[in-house]
Known about the structure:
The structure holds 3 protein chains of 3 kinds.
Chain A: E1 14-25, E2 28-39, E3 43-47, H1 54-61, E4 69-74, E5 77-78, H2 84-89, E6 92-95, H3 107-112, E7 118-119, E8 122-123, H4 127-139, H5 154-167, E9 172-176, H6 184-199, E10 203-207, H7 211-217, E11 220-225, E12 228-234, H8 240-249, E13 267-275, E14 282-287, E15 291-295, H9 302-309, E16 316-321, H10 330-336, E17 338-341, H11 345-349, H12 356-359, E18 369-370, E19 373-374, H13 376-389, H14 406-419, E20 424-428, H15 436-451, E21 455-460, H16 463-469, E22 472-477, E23 480-486, H17 493-503
Parallel strand pairs in A: 3-10, 3-11, 6-9, 9-10, 15-21, 15-22, 17-20, 20-21
Antiparallel strand pairs in A: 1-2, 1-4, 4-5, 7-8, 11-12, 13-14, 13-16, 18-19, 22-23
Helix pairs in contact in A: 4-5, 8-17
Chain B: H1 10-36, H2 53-78, H3 86-102, H4 107-131, H5 136-154, H6 176-180, E1 182-183, E2 186-187, H7 188-206, H8 208-218, H9 220-225, H10 230-256, H11 267-277, H12 289-309, H13 315-339
Antiparallel strand pairs in B: 1-2
Chain C: H1 2-16, H2 20-42, H3 49-57, H4 60-74, H5 82-97, H6 114-138, H7 143-161, E1 166-167, H8 177-180, H9 190-208, H10 210-220, H11 222-227, H12 232-258, E2 261-262, H13 269-279, H14 291-310, H15 317-341
Antiparallel strand pairs in C: 1-2
Helix pairs in contact in C: 2-14, 4-9, 4-10, 4-12, 4-13, 4-14, 5-6, 5-7, 5-12, 6-7, 6-12, 9-10, 13-14, 13-15, 14-15
Amino acid sequence: xxxxxxxxxxxxxxxxxxxxxxxxxxxxxxxxxxxxxxxxxxxxxxxxxxxxxxxxxxxxxxxxxxxxxxxxxxxxxxxxxxxxxxxxxxxxxxxxxxxxxxxxxxxxxxxxxxxxxxxxxxxxxxxxxxxxxxxxxxxxxxxxxxxxxxxxxxxxxxxxxxxxxxxxxxxxxxxxxxxxxxxxxxxxxxxxxxxxxxxxxxxxxxxxxxxxxxxxxxxxxxxxxxxxxxxxxxxxxxxxxxxxxxxxxxxxxxxxxxxxxxxxxxxxxxxxxxxxxxxxxxxxxxxxxxxxxxxxxxxxxxxxxxxxxxxxxxxxxxxxxxxxxxxxxxxxxxxxxxxxxxxxxxxxxxxxxxxxxxxxxxxxxxxxxxxxxxxxxxxxxxxxxxxxxxxxxxxxxxxxxxxxxxxxxxxxxxxxxxxxxxxxxxxxxxxxxxxxxxxxxxxxxxxxxxxxxxxxxxxxxxxxxxxxxxxxxxxxxxxxxxxxxxxxxxxxxxxxxxxxxxxxxxxx
Amino acid sequence: xxxxxxxxxxxxxxxxxxxxxxxxxxxxxxxxxxxxxxxxxxxxxxxxxxxxxxxxxxxxxxxxxxxxxxxxxxxxxxxxxxxxxxxxxxxxxxxxxxxxxxxxxxxxxxxxxxxxxxxxxxxxxxxxxxxxxxxxxxxxxxxxxxxxxxxxxxxxxxxxxxxxxxxxxxxxxxxxxxxxxxxxxxxxxxxxxxxxxxxxxxxxxxxxxxxxxxxxxxxxxxxxxxxxxxxxxxxxxxxxxxxxxxxxxxxxxxxxxxxxxxxxxxxxxxxxxxxxxxxxxxxxxxxxxxxxxxxxxxxxxxxxxxxxxxxxxxxxxxxxxxxxxxxxxxxxxxxxxxxx
Amino acid sequence: xxxxxxxxxxxxxxxxxxxxxxxxxxxxxxxxxxxxxxxxxxxxxxxxxxxxxxxxxxxxxxxxxxxxxxxxxxxxxxxxxxxxxxxxxxxxxxxxxxxxxxxxxxxxxxxxxxxxxxxxxxxxxxxxxxxxxxxxxxxxxxxxxxxxxxxxxxxxxxxxxxxxxxxxxxxxxxxxxxxxxxxxxxxxxxxxxxxxxxxxxxxxxxxxxxxxxxxxxxxxxxxxxxxxxxxxxxxxxxxxxxxxxxxxxxxxxxxxxxxxxxxxxxxxxxxxxxxxxxxxxxxxxxxxxxxxxxxxxxxxxxxxxxxxxxxxxxxxxxxxxxxxxxxxxxxxxxxxxxxxxx
Lengths: 508, 340, 342
């Protein structure tokens, strides 16, 4: 499997080289002939907007996805992992967002998990313990190896996982948004760990939306955009945030917002001081007939705002919707006239094992019943009506939801909300995984609904979407609403990206 | 967001202490209550109080089956799996062992053959759960019915158990293992239970098996990503439980001097009860063999002690209530942990 | 796009076919008929109309319990407490109805009129259901453990009340009426008719009402159902109360039939109720299954056990046969659905 190939002469000095890497999905080229090198013992940052192709590259590096074409090499030797296990054995460790430590074991037991020296099933003393303890001490001396992992903070657990990767011989450790759940002090500590790793012969590939982190930590940066490689250069040569943002955004975002005219200041939803485990003092209002967007990167708190308004999560603060009772559960929210299209369509929004007909009335199921008895014929009529109205591409209302395409599934979820007769719709990532055609149909529908006086909140991590349809946009970062902008031709996109990547704090 | 430097308050330390040692406190409490209660009034224990040598010996030898079973069952539940067939496996083993002995097979071969039967019974469970991917509850309900059915079929029609009668005579030594052959006043079966428990404690603390069980139950994805063969771990644990059920069956059969196809009925509930009482989380990952052993001692002391205080027909009620309380407290403790 | 068109055409054909649930139910019904015919060939005198009637009438108790158990399984929860509740409610009904001055503890009760005794016994049964609901819904303890505990709790109370045996003396003369009343001039007793009514109502509720719909939704995807405004907790509470009430009624009818409250009555009925649901194609993971399927599952089990008796197999075969039947049912269901979706 490992053979010398014709990479550049100095390839052996490169921790990782990527050549013409391409990944095609049906109809989409997620990664398009990307080539770059990562120097040994550096912190190499990977940046780009959502959908730029970063995570696809990471999946190919960790063996979770096979490239369509192109090649990779570690220290000049061909690298084509067949599985995540294979990638680990080739020396690529990954710090997943979901932690893979066993809470019930001690730190030391976690560090040696799966690598124990044993004789006849009995654990025997070996230098392994000493080695991993040393590795841990080198990167973070304050963690007690005999402590139970359940007593550690999220940051400490991450460090344990990093130490495990390092002590199992990983020469490259990939970290995907590792600071999403950390406090500022913990972030500092993690950075210390990453620097010490770099100094002990480990290369770190660091992916983050928070540009400040990248400037603080990174040696080199690779910028991706629309699946293409834009640049790889030392961060010292990058002229501050503006240049990085410029590279990430490139051409002006196609931005087909058409003003829907003046929207009367007639608030239907007023939120004051919304706070919970993630949100910090979120306040805003939404007017009748208005489409409001919440834009922020992963972990900024958009979904949490939606769930708090919907009564799905607890939160402090005031929520006033048309003077009605504040919902303490989704049931009450629907009764108050609020409907949610959840972030995860297949697991939260849709009953995939039911048919279209059965899915549509769920949020207002009693409307189709008299004295608790279901009216099947009425249900069929309703299903046909919505299939027609929303243009759900299906030949039968008896089709199982799991068999529909993403766009049509989303239309079914929207039908559920419309059937609930909601006065306000909360749409969380309404077009994720939806093809272009269905996307524009969904946008038309949203505009229609707003024109009929409904209030719409869109929670999205796609800037194009938010700028394409929303009248007003709230920019979120780290659980806060950092800025409010009126949509229109004069929107300053680099400034938006600056705010949502944490640049709004210094220059408000 | 939590701070990195957490200084536990004294309240936390008390909680921690209670969580780690409550089971021993409960045992002490049970023993104190039962031994201060004046039992002279009650006909079953006219010879003295709870702590009398005779009573303790009595409790310990009745307890031999559950004490044998508790350790392996704990490890299985730590790995996040369950075995509802242990009672039936125990009955079947008791019947097979008694049949072998009554037909003239000497002690050691009969013993070994029954233990091998335990291996088979456990392996069948492991096969159904891991290879055929049947939910553990359903798979072991199937074998609960199957093993019990076979045990019933092995016993001749019209007879309730394998016992002396007709041409066949149970040899005199049959009782030795579970009742009469004593070392320091206690039968061999009890010492085997102690040995098994020590072996399980070693397996938990000093062997890969215990660690892999915790990893499998605590975070299966992490376990697999670490290259652990979780399927093999679980099958091995089912086999261990099968073996312990066979040992428990031999003990019970020898104690009662017959092979009763119903002798293990309800054992799965007792096993779940003592394991939950010992603080094992039903979500997996967490638990101690030794604490389950103590849990078994508590339950048996209570059951036997109670027989001296109240009529026998209170037993089901008390065990059922204890199971609910153990489940609830277990749950409250683990929820508080996850909230911290 | 062409791919989609082809997929669409394939799905159109599929839509004309039965839903998975009807498919499995038909399989189960087919299996029940096939087994009956097979038994008719193997067992002399098996093929008689009376035999068909007996298959149902001898199993009215378990089938009635199966209704509540099936609803709960469809919502994703176990109920193993029903057997214990059968014993409890029967014992309570007798105890409440026994006259106050009996010769000893076991022959004297509360002296309530029969109807009041039965109502109170039913309330007692529903209290066990309420405990199930509290532990499962509020404390989130796994339902299998909770209901094993309440199974013992209910039977334990019954044993205490009967001092480990039974109460059957000093009962009002009308106590035995309900359980022994024959209907329509045939030998069919009231409990069997009630079972039939229960099945019909249950099928109607399951297929035609909002309540039935919600049960499926919760079992199919509890997260999505909550976000769609379903009050999962409240619904599961209702289901546990319903199941306990059905078990309570069965216990009371049995007590009336035998004019006794026996603390070991209903032993293993919870397993039989679970077994017939599984035989009937109810999925343990929730969201799938039907009362009709459960009914045919009961017929399968009854055919197998009575054929075994007809073949002069000892009654001890029942456990082995049940184990094999459930195993085959589960493997067959998995296999059939996998092939169907292949």
